[in-house]
Design brief:
Among the domains are: 40 residues, no CATH class; 50 residues. The chain is built from six helices and no strands.
């Protein structure tokens, strides 16, 4: 009884992995044909179209009003304010993390503020870890092993 080969044939790979078929890509600033056609039709009409949209908005057209307001008002960006809580001065990083947790639990700070503070603490922990590693390396390199040739070692 013959075994069947159910695997599909794969097409040979034309390009190396990570290599584009068009390395130069599409030129910056180029437009689709539809975009070019729309820009050509609207050329010189922007003032009249804007006036019409404003008139429709003033007459109560909700969609026109939304379009006008979207153009007038800037999009709101997320802003943050200073966090009004104190972490224990001189305490360990674990103590400071516990203080953040307690302040969040008791409602003194919001969960978003707690996330920002914990992120700062994680950065401090990473810096401390890297500093400790650097100090250990300096101690090791300060007392290097004597130079021994492979023949002497064996």
């Amino acid at each position: 009884m013959a075994t069947e080969n159910t695997g599909q044939k794969q097409k040979p790979q034309l390009y190396k992995k990570g290599q584009s078929g068009n390395p130069t890509g599409r030129p910056k600033g180029s437009h689709n044909k539809a975009t070019i056609a729309a820009l050509t039709l609207l050329e010189g009409e922007s003032e009249a179209l804007t006036r019409k949209a404003v008139d429709l908005a003033l007459d109560g057209d909700i969609q026109a009003l939304r379009i006008c307001l979207d153009r007038i008002t800037p999009t709101l960006k997320a802003t943050s304010k200073p966090i009004n809580t104190r972490l224990p001065a001189g305490g360990s990083l674990a103590d400071q993390a516990a203080a953040v947790y307690e302040a969040t639990r008791s409602g003194k700070i919001t969960p978003d503020e707690a996330t920002a503070l914990m992120s700062l603490l994680q950065g401090q922990i990473k810096i401390k870890e890297l500093t400790d590693i650097e100090e250990r390396l300096l101690k090791l390199e300060g007392n290097p092993l004597p130079n021994v040739s492979p023949e002497e070692f064996i």
